[in-house]
């Protein structure tokens, strides 16, 4: 993070939100675009890359392992790759900052290269479990020395040639799936991954786009079987990154909640493995129109027109959870203002994100006057029926960008201000968040340093 001191934040909505905005590039797709470009033979161009701290950590790591990565203009990056198998030994530890995606995917890449790399990260990342990738990557032949609990700092020694495996994912995790696919790229033979519950499929789409031999078969029970032929040669590409639906979720929910608002968010990625929140908000009564549906960079996109709506509580269908896994914090804010009860369960994974998002959201929402019951695997929320929350509290973000942005939105619909103790983590995924909200009519609390 750029600033040494915490940066408190308060937002208020003195009037309805209105205007047309664009959110930055998709974080998941940006990480993958940099990694695959760095492994292609020749020069790739990426347009719309997210220039957030998490993605910059991936860029720095790929540079440290030999790729040439340069910024040409805002969001436009040029990458000269080293070829699959061509990663070099990094001179120093790879600092992953706050980014779980960078860490787990790069552990996969290193696992099948002649590279030994040490991964370090911030206090949040250093608490997150890495055993889920260490276990299958060890089966492929990589060697690990990790901190207690399979956490960072950790060291990976790759094996060449690595051993192809068949692996059934024990947790619904696109990061684990992607780590194994990336390891499989430089592994002879076929790496096979069975995914009982489908998760975001950006890796599969982009690997194909870069010329890898990858097939996906859907079994009767809905499980996906992904097979990647290794020792692949990737061809450089022109990648166009769509706007991030996970970032768009914050202004979208803000527009639903602040009475009288109408907002257009342009160019939002709506890959079905990512768009669960929008399906759910519409089922709750949210007025969200998908305008100008089209394709960008092999992904479906549309402009979202969002109008303030009366929302009803809902039981979140478990099948939707993987397609909105990062959107639960902001959904909980929407639920706190809805009419009736929202039940969101089966969400154990939320406890191992940048913070324990179940506990932290329960505590923060209660502190600002919402009625919330925390259960082991989720939250039960009794909404206010549109009545503003009390507010008047300081909420700890726990180094979690999505917690910080969720409570900033909650502050727009609270009677007394909601203060976020530290907004710096927002820069990991959505550096323009505050400016974008201001352009829609939100105002920063006057007594909080800019
Ligand atoms: O693959 C990815 O880009 C991501 C996968 C998800 O994590 P898990 O794989 O841990 O569910 C998600 O929460 C994260 O923000 C990004
Ligand atoms: C969980 C997230 O990211 P990561 O796992 O990459 O830290 C997120 O962005 O909400």
From TrEMBL:
Binding site for 3-phosphoshikimate: 27-28, 32, 173, 175, 326, 353
GO molecular function, one term: 3-phosphoshikimate 1-carboxyvinyltransferase activity
Pfam family, one: EPSP_synthase
The protein's annotated pathway: Metabolic intermediate biosynthesis; chorismate biosynthesis; chorismate from D-erythrose 4-phosphate and phosphoenolpyruvate: step 6/7
Family the UniProt entry places it in: Belongs to the EPSP synthase family.
HAMAP family: EPSP_synth (MF_00210)
Subunit structure: Monomer.
Protein name: 3-phosphoshikimate 1-carboxyvinyltransferase
Gene name as annotated: aroA
């Amino acid at each position: 993070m750029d600033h040494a001191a915490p940066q408190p934040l308060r937002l208020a909505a003195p009037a309805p939100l209105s205007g047309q905005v664009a959110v930055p590039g998709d974080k998941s797709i940006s990480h993958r675009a940099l990694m695959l470009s760095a492994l292609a033979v020749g020069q790739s161009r990426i347009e719309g890359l997210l220039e957030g701290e998490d993605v910059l950590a991936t860029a720095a790591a790929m540079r440290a392992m030999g790729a040439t990565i340069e910024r040409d203009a805002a969001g436009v990056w040029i990458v000269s790759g080293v070829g699959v198998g061509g990663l070099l030994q990094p001179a120093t530890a790879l600092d992953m900052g706050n980014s779980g995606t960078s860490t787990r995917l790069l552990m996969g890449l290193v696992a099948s290269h002649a590279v030994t790399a040490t991964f370090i990260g911030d206090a949040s990342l250093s608490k997150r479990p890495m055993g889920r990738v260490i276990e299958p990557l060890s089966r492929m032949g990589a060697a690990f020395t990790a901190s207690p609990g399979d956490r960072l700092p950790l060291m990976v020694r790759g094996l060449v040639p690595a051993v192809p495996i068949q692996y059934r994912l024990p947790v619904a995790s696109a990061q684990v799936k992607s780590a194994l696919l990336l390891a499989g790229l430089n592994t002879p033979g076929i790496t096979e991954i069975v995914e009982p519950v489908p998760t975001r499929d950006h890796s599969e789409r982009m690997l194909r786009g870069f010329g890898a031999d990858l097939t996906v078969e859907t079994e009767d029970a809905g499980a996906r079987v992904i097979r990647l032929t290794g020792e692949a040669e990737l061809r450089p590409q022109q990648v166009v990154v769509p706007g991030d639906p996970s970032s768009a979720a914050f202004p979208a929910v803000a527009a639903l909640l602040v009475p009288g608002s109408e907002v257009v968010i342009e160019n939002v990625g709506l890959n079905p493995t990512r768009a669960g929140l929008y399906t759910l908000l519409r089922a709750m009564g949210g007025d969200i129109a998908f305008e100008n549906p089209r394709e960008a960079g092999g992904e479906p996109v549309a402009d979202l027109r969002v109008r303030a709506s009366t929302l009803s509580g809902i039981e979140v269908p478990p099948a939707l959870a993987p397609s909105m896994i990062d959107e639960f914090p902001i959904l909980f804010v929407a639920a706190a203002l809805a009419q009736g009860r929202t039940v969101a369960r089966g969400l154990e994974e939320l406890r191992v994100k940048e913070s324990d998002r179940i506990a932290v959201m329960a505590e923060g929402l209660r502190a600002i006057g919402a009625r919330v019951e925390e259960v082991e695997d989720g939250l039960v929320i009794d909404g206010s029926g549109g009545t503003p929350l009390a507010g008047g509290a300081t909420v700890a973000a726990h180094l979690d960008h999505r917690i910080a942005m969720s409570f900033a939105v909650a502050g727009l619909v609270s009677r007394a201000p909601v203060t976020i103790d530290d907004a710096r983590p927002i820069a990991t995924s959505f550096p323009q968040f505050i400016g974008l909200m201001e352009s829609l009519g939100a105002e920063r609390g006057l007594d909080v340093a800019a």
